[in-house]
Structures are given as C-alpha cells and as structure tokens.
Design brief:
The complex is a heterodimer of chains A (356) and B (392).
Chain A (H helix, E strand, L loop, with lengths): L7 E3 L9 E3 L5 H14 L4 E3 L5 H10 L6 H15 L4 E3 L2 E4 L8 H4 L1 H8 L7 E2 L2 E3 L11 H8 L3 H23 L4 H9 L21 E6 L2 H4 L8 H7 L2 E5 L5 H8 L9 H15 L5 E7 L3 H17 L3 E6 L5 H27 L1
Parallel strand pairs in A: 2-3, 2-4, 4-6, 5-7, 8-9, 8-10, 10-11
Antiparallel strand pairs in A: 1-3
Helix pairs in contact in A: 1-7, 1-8, 2-3, 6-7, 7-8, 11-12, 12-13
Chain B lengths: L1 E4 L5 H10 L3 E2 L7 H10 L6 H15 L4 E6 L9 H11 L5 E6 L3 H12 L4 H28 L8 H14 L7 H13 L10 E7 L1 H5 L7 H7 L2 E5 L3 H8 L4 H9 L13 H13 L4 E7 L3 H17 L3 E6 L5 H21 L14 H4 L4 H6 L11
Parallel strand pairs in B: 1-2, 1-3, 3-4, 5-6, 5-7, 7-8
Helix pairs in contact in B: 1-6, 2-3, 6-7, 6-8, 7-8, 13-14
Classes of the chains: A alpha/beta (356), B alpha/beta (392).
Chain lengths: 356, 392
C-alpha cells in the first residue's frame, strides 16, 4: 500500500494503541459503515486498505488456492497489504447469518479460518467475530464477551458501540433506498472517500436520446470494487443508462417476490439479488438487466440460471458479464456499449411501432 | 408411478426399496460420455460437476419414461442442497413434466410430507419396517465394501473382486428380512475369502476424502479406486451411504458433534458440506495409520475449496502426504493417473524412510492372515481399523 491517499485513518488515539485494518473487499461495501462506526465509537483507529489494484489481485492469487473465486482472492490481497502496512489487527468477521434460516456462502463462513491458513503471518493478527442474528436491521456480533475481551473494552461500551454502528448502518441503508449506490452512501455516512475513480477514463459523450434505466445485479464487492467492477456504475451513467441496484430496492418488496417460492436460495445476498431481479423484471420502467459476476462464484451459478429463466419469461433484455483476474476494461466497455445500443434500438423500434 | 434417482451408492437396494413401496423403478444408467455431454449442455457452466452428472442422469431416465425423481436436498450453505430446485426448472424448460421428490433433512415438515407422498398406501409402521430392512442391507454392504476396498490391493487375477462384488450384490438381492443379514454377510465373507491373494511387499494404505459424490462414484472420479488397487494400494473410503444416513439421526447428534470438534481447531464451524467432517476424517485416519490422503473435489466446490486452503497446514501438522485433486467434465485421464502414480510413489518412499510411529500394516495382528491364504474366520476378524468411525 504505502500510498497515503489510499489509506484513511479514522479516529484518534496515541500511536502505541493498536490499529485495526479493514480490508476494502467483500462485504466492506455493505457493512463498512457499521464496522467503521463501531471501531470509531471505541476510539480504535481504523485503517481501510486502498482500492484494489492489479498488484492487490496478484498478491491475492499468490496466496489463494487456484480455483478460489475472484472476490476472495482480492480479499486475500487486501489482507496481505494490510499486514505489510503494519496493521496490528485485521478485522475479518465470520458472516454466518443476518436473517433466519439463511446463510452466507461457505467461503464467508470459513473466511477467518481460510485466511489464517493461507496467510500464516496473519494468524495472530486476525480479529474475528461471529455475525449471527435473525434480522438484518438488528445486526450484532455473537459472543460479545469474547470480542470485548480481545478489544480490551467493557461489554457495556461494546454494546453502545454496536448500537452506534447499527444506527449509522440503518441511515446508510435509508440513503441506499433513496437511490444512492452502496459506495456513494458509504462515503456519505462514514465521511470516507469511496474508492477513488481512475483519473484517466475519458468521459464519453452523452447521447441526446432519452436516458435508459437498467437493473444492475451483482454483489456489492463485485460492482463497487475498483478492479472487479471497473467502475461500472459511472461507465453506465456516461452511456446515458442509469443503474438500479438491489440495495436501492426496499427489502420488503424483495421478499414479497420470493414468498411464492417453495424454497429459496440458501444465501442471503443471492436471495436479495434474485428478489431484486424479479422486481426489476416486473418493472416496466426498466429497459434491461445486467448481471455482473466474478469467475468462480458458486452461488451465482445458480442465481444466474434463475435470472436467465426469469428473463426469458419476462421477455426483457438480460446480459451476464463475467469478470476474472485477467481484467481488461475494454471488454466490459464494449459489452456495455453494445447492450445499451441494443436497448436504445429496441426502444426506438417500439416507439416507431406505436406510430405506425 | 415410475420413479428414478441418482446413480450413487448401492442403487440396486434403492430399487428394491422403492418397489417395496409399490412404485415402478426406472434404473439410472451408469453415466457415460453422453450423460456428461447432456449434463454439461443443460447445466449452468459454473455449477459443480455432480450437478451436471445428475442433470445428465435425470434426462436419460426421463427419456426412458420416468415420471418422478427422488433426490435429497438440504437447507444448508452448500449448493447441493438446492440442486433439486434448479433441476426441476431445467427439466421443465426442456419440456419434461417430472415430479421431484426432494427429501430435505433440515425441514422436518416438508420431509415428512414428501415421505408420505412416496410411501403410497402402506402404513407408517410398515414403511418404517421397510426402511429399517433396507438400511440394514445398505449398512451390511457398506461393511463388506470397506473390506473389499482394503483387500483388492492384493488381487491376484484381475477382475476377481469386481466379480465377487457382483455376486455379493446378487446374494443380498434375495434378502427378505433383517434376520437373514448376518448369515448373508457370513456367506459374502466366505466368497471373498476364497479369492486367491498375492503377497505384497510394500503395501500402503491411502484414504479418500472429499465431496461425497465424486468420492463415491467411480464414473465421476475416473475410477480412482481401481487405479489405486492396481498400484497395490489399500483403499479406505470416507463416504458410505449408511454412515451418512446414521449421522442424520437426531440421537446421533451428540456423538457427531464430539467427532467434529476435533476439526474445529482448523475450521471452527461446519460450512454445510463435508468440510469439517473431512478434516476430522483426516486427523482420525492419521491416528489409524493411513499413509496418505487423496482429497477429491469437484471443480469450484465451495466448502471443499475452504478445506483445500487448509490442507497444506494439515499435511504439515500431521506429517501426512495429501494430494488434492479437482475433477470435472474434462476427463483428463492421463494427467490424473500420472499424478496419482507419482503420489503413490511418494507415499511409499515416505513410509519406507519414516521410522514407524504407528503400527506397520504387515505386522498388525488383524492383518497377518491376509498374507497367507485367507480363511473366513480370519477375514471376519479384520475389523477394518480404518474406515470405521466411533460415530458411524
């Protein structure tokens, strides 16, 4: 890392106090406001790793097993960077459940164990806490006494910090629902810079035609990661297509679409994406949907099939963009351009059809 | 109703069980290249290999007139729990009107409901009786198979054990009540004991752990066990249907937890697959004197990838060679076999060079009999130290 711009120090304390490193990867983009506020409230300085670069990915690849999915490789890279930067502890929560009878992908369930073994130098620096609760709005840590001990705070202060974190997180979600992407709402509620956009991506000319609205389905750590997502939100906006993501849709509406299912997907976020997808397929104001997925994602292999079937049923344009560790922005841009062009042509034909 | 199921484990017993409930059975065909091709064509690209095998198997069964598919599901984090839902949709999109009976052990109400649909007219008492009989048969076959897997390394005439196994299956096909099972098991052992065995100087014992489907099914793992046996390796397999079923019983919960607790220093919680169990197996096998481990996973398997990340550490801690192999529809036999041969060589060399801290296989009291012409009583005494767990 070494680059000060990429590092954000939060909170103030004497320099000999431990700092906590927060990898800017996986669910940081969603639960970041909660975690940052939590540590801030306990007066513990937090370092967030920089935006994902090619080097981060390469480091991650070096440490993970070959078949691992890209987001987890990226996560490994971030942890390695934080260790190199000298963070005393690295916060890797074990995301187990944030709603009843739903889980996270096995890789999230085993994340602290996995990191401990693939990066042996991190073994004594990992700060982990189980996240297991029945309702997302009441998110908390399990086994709080243990966490309080390892942080050296009283359990009362810990509870207060969790409360503060939850409050900010709920505010963050409220801003999402008002139409801000998770990255934008994260920057707003925590006062941290979102992953800085690359300075040299020339703005494309805005087309004069009416703006498109596209559903952008994908996990937060794919869409908002600088390397995996390649700033897809801005790319779409410059193409005159305004993305709607799952976090902008009300949770109740998402769940409503799923209640007709006999059995829903076992993973919280895949379910959210599926419900959001069904909502967007049913929404006449949405011109088309883009599913962005990373190489090796297990849950997406099932989610993608379900979305594909729903797209055929709704007769709505749908594209899957898969990103792997080889990167390359052009392939993404070409496909987005082609997709938005196609949507425009389709809309134009519809208008002309009406005139005839 | 004409029912079919996956090609996994003792399928001839499943057939008799389903027929006993008054259904007709369309036997699943042993997967061939066509099965894999069909499966790959109609399954999502990144779904795991067992899913693709099942897609192909189900399509072939439906082509031959099956009306319903019996399968299992879970509500845990592993993708296998959700297979049935996706299969149902794929079959529907292909125009088959198949009914899926997914037995979900984590949703008791739906589980009972599905069973009620399957049991048809027979009473619950009768149904439980039938299940107990066929469970006992499966358990007996699993015990026998564990022995065959060890002894096959000493096969003198190629194909002997395959033939004898077929005979044993036919033998058990006549079984009508639980009382007959001990007798049948004895005659099966008698059959095995009549086979001529060869002397083997440097036998090694290798255990296979990993994802259940690819570990159990020869067609999915390029016949790994035959390959190992031909190299003179005693094989211990970690997955048996009867063990799997027994572990699902609520009154076995405590003992399962105790067994899994050994794995928790490496992997704190169960991820919903066979992950913690595999780590517990590896630790246990090491204590039982297994010389090497082959870990099998389908490409991209979620829980097993976490295990794979932990394996290097486990191998170092236990001083035990572990080979992790990932299998998928690209059946690259040459690559696979070369790696296995190299691994077996490595295990042999290691065993020879290592001062034996565990019982050497040739000197084990249960084992000495094998080097002479085996008699039935002796064979019965081979308690198959490896391959049985206190919780199985």
């Amino acid at each position: 890392m070494g680059d000060n711009e990429a590092t954000s120090f939060v909170g103030w304390r004497k320099s000999n106090i431990m700092t906590i490193g927060l990898p800017r990867a996986l669910l940081y983009y969603y639960y970041g406001p909660f975690w940052i506020t939590f540590f801030r409230h306990l007066d513990i300085p937090v370092t967030v790793s920089g935006a994902t670069t090619k080097t981060t990915v390469d480091t991650g690849i070096k440490h993970s097993v070959a078949e691992m999915c890209l987001p987890v490789k990226v996560f490994c890279g971030h942890v390695a960077e934080l260790i190199a930067a000298g963070a005393d502890r690295i916060f890797i929560p074990r995301m187990m459940a944030v709603e009843k009878d739903k889980y996270f992908c096995p890789k999230f369930l085993g994340l602290p164990d996995m990191i401990r073994h693939v990066l042996p130098e991190s073994a004594d620096r990992i700060l982990t806490a189980d996240v297991k609760c029945d309702r997302e709005t009441e998110i908390t840590f399990a086994m709080r006494d243990q966490l309080a001990r390892s942080l050296g705070v009283s359990s009362r202060r810990l509870a207060a910090a969790i409360n503060a974190g939850r409050k900010v997180w709920n505010a963050f979600r409220a801003r999402n629902r008002q139409g801000l992407t998770a990255a934008e709402a994260l920057a707003e509620t925590t006062g941290l810079n979102p992953s800085p956009p690359k300075p040299h991506s020339p703005p494309l000319p805005r087309t004069a035609e009416a703006a498109l609205r596209v559903g952008l389905l994908g996990y937060v750590y794919n869409i908002y990661d600088a390397y995996i997502g390649m700033n897809i939100v801005n790319k779409l906006r410059t193409l005159g297509a305004f993305p709607v993501t799952f976090e902008m849709i009300d949770d109740a509406a998402i769940m409503e679409k799923l209640c007709s299912f006999d059995k829903t997907l076992p993973w919280t976020f895949s379910n959210k994406l599926l419900g959001a997808g069904y909502n967007l397929f049913a929404d006449p104001g949405i011109d088309g949907l883009i599913h962005i997925t990373a190489f090796g994602c297990g849950p997406d292999s099932m989610l993608g099939k379900l979305l594909e079937l729903a797209a055929a049923e709704a007769a709505k344009p749908f594209i899957t963009v898969r990103v792997d560790e080889h990167g390359g922005e052009t392939h993404m841009l070409t496909r987005l351009e082609a997709f938005t062009d196609m949507l425009r042509r389709k809309n134009r034909r519809r208008v002309e059809g009406c005139r005839l | 109703m004409k029912l079919s199921f996956a090609h996994m484990g003792p399928i001839s017993v499943y057939r008799r069980l389903i027929e006993a409930l008054g259904h007709e059975v369309i036997m699943p065909q042993k997967p061939t290249q066509r099965t894999f091709d069909l499966g790959t064509k109609y399954s999502p690209e990144f779904l795991c290999f067992p899913f693709k095998c099942l897609t192909g198997t189900f399509i072939e069964a439906l082509e031959r007139g099956a009306e319903g598919i019996i399968t299992v599901g879970t509500s845990q984090s592993c993708r296998a729990g959700f297979y049935a839902e996706i299969h149902r949709r794929i079959m529907k999109s292909l125009g088959y009107s198949a009914q899926f009976f997914a037995l979900d052990f984590h949703r008791p109400r739906e589980f009972i409901q599905t069973l009620a649909e399957l049991k048809g007219n027979c009473s619950w008492w009768r149904f439980i009786d039938i299940i107990r009989l066929y469970y006992a048969i499966i358990a007996a076959l699993d015990r026998l198979q564990a022995k065959v897997r060890l002894l096959r390394a000493y096969e003198q005439r190629a194909g002997d054990f395959v033939r004898v196994w077929q005979q044993i299956l036919e033998l058990f096909d006549t079984c009508r009540s639980r009382r007959e099972i001990p007798e049948l098991e004895r005659s099966a052992l008698e059959l095995i004991s009549r086979l001529p065995l060869r002397q083997a100087e440097n036998a090694v014992r290798i255990a296979i752990v990993g994802e259940v489907y690819v570990v159990m099914e020869a067609h999915a793992n390029l016949d790994l066990e035959t390959k190992l046996a031909s190299l003179g390796v005693e094989v211990v397999n970690s997955q048996y249907i009867s063990h799997w079923l027994r572990r699902r019983l609520p009154w076995h919960k405590a003992s399962v937890e105790i067994a899994l607790a050994r794995a928790s220093q490496y992997l704190k919680i169960d991820l919903g697959g066979h992950d913690q169990e595999n780590i517990a197996h590896i630790i246990e096998y090491r204590e039982q004197g297994v010389d090497g481990i082959i870990h099998l996973l389908p490409f991209g398997c979620l829980p097993e990838l976490v295990v794979q990340s932990i394996l290097p550490r486990l191998s170092k801690d236990l001083d035990l060679p572990i080979l992790s192999l990932s299998v998928d529809e690209q059946q690259s036999t040459a690559n696979y076999h070369t790696r296995i041969e190299a691994f077996v060589d490595l295990v042999r060399t290691k065993k020879r060079s290592r001062a034996r801290t565990f019982w050497p296989i040739q000197a084990h009291p249960d084992f000495t009999g094998i080097l002479e012409p085996v008699n039935a009583a002796r064979l019965g005494a081979i308690a198959v130290a490896a391959g049985t767990f206190p919780w199985c």
